[in-house]
Structures are given as C-alpha cells and as structure tokens.
Design goal:
The protein is an alpha/beta fold. It has a single domain (about 25-250), classed as Spore Coat Polysaccharide Biosynthesis Protein SpsA, Chain A. The chain is about 45% helix and about 15% strand. The protein is built from 9 helices and 7 strands; from the N terminus they run E-H-E-H-E-H-E-H-E-H-E-H-H-E-H-H. It has helices at about 35-50, 65-70, 85-100, 115-125, 145-160, 180-185, 195-200, 220-225, 230-250, and strands spanning about 25-30, 50-55, 75, 105-110, 130-135, 175-180, 210-215. Helix 1 (about 35-50) runs parallel beside helix 2 and helix 5 (about 145-160) packs parallel to helix 9. The chain is globular and about 40 Å long.
Length: about 250
Amino acid sequence: MSNEQQPRSASAPPAPAAAGEDWSDTVVVVRVYNEAPVLGGVIRELLDAGLRVIAVDDASTDTSADEIDRTGALRVSHPVNLGAGGALQTGYEAAVTFTDARYVACFDSDGQHQLADLLGMVRLIREGWDVVIGSRFLDGRTEMSFLRSLILRTASKVLNRGAGTRLTDAHNGLRVVTRDIAARVRLSHTGMAYASELEYFLTRPEHRVTEFPVHILYTDYSTAKGQPLLNSVNILVDTMAHRVSNGRTR
C-alpha cells in the first residue's frame, strides 16, 4: 500500500466540539517550560472540552507547576531541564503508562494551538489513520512572514526526500498519534533536534499518515518568547543535518 496519502480538504475550518461529544479516548501531552502567564487557560480549555491532559513540567523556574496543579491535570516534572525532545518523550511514556487512551495528542502550552483544530484531528484519526499532523499550509488561516514560510516549506521538502509520506509542514507541533505509535517513539535528542527525528519515525512507509489544516496563532506573548524566525532557521539547519545523517544509514 502506498503511503502517499492525501491531506484532508482545507475548504473550511474544523467544526468546534459538538455538545455531548465524547473525547475520553484521547489524552493530550502539554510540554511546559516557564509558561505560567497563559498555562492555566490553555489546560483548562482542554479539560473543559472533556480531554485528559498530562502536563510535563520541564524544570520550570516560574510558577508553572502550581498553575498545572490548580487545573487538576496530571503533572509529571523533570528535576532538570531536558528540552523539548526530552519533555515529549516523557509525555508519550506517561500517556501509555498512566492512561488507557487510544490516541495521544501534543498541544503547545503557549496558546498558539487551537482547540477546534485538535478536535478535528482526533475525529480524523478515528477514521483509521496512525498519525495526523497539523499543517499551516493547507489553508490561509495562519499568518506568517514570507521568509518564515519559505524556510519552513524548504525544511519540509528536505525532509520529504527521505520520508515515506510527503508533508506540507514537517515541523508542526500539533500532532495526534495512536497509542501504538506513541509507545514506540524513542527520541534520542533532548533539545529541538528531536523534531526531525520524530517526523522521520512518524512518516515511515508502514504508517498511515495524513495532514490536517490548522491555525497557528502567533501572539505577542509567543513570538516574544520563541524568536520564531530564528527557530525556523534552526529547524531548516537541523532538518538538513538529520537528512544527511539519516541518508548515510539507509
């Protein structure tokens, strides 16, 4: 079976949660590092929708841990900072160990991701996919600079040369995977270099993978923290380095 799957139609934004819809089959991993000003609102929105939440506090130095505890979400804390990759690996392991969820989602703690997109992705993975990855490029809702768009699209093309599935947005943090996929993730990179490593695993030819149009909201808060253009350059450089390394082992 070919893994050249077609992305979901981007003709309209995903519908919000229907009244009484059951989301108990899904647990959401939220990686946290010093997000106290917005964290409580992000987690409460997920919980209020009926989703289970595991928040991985990656040795925050602010009051993020207290904010997590106030929401009632399950908190898993690192004694030292392990970076984005380490926090995600912990989140996947916790999801498989402490819940019986069929699906494991990843959701940013800084307010950039939208609940309606996540719920649409969960509905889609229930149709029989193994992996659903958000894409900023399937519709026009995400606003970004031309340079940022160019860098991210180039990174996707580089990754696609070695992947089993062709993605339009190779480094989008909004993802939903099956429990089986989550249980088999083994990230060796603890920092941001994890992203290419993870995408190569998720897009293996044997996995049924598709994309879903998402709206990433770049707020003043998130852009001030994240240096988005620099991050995009780092993503491109990391993707190219991982592609060279991965190609040597094939």
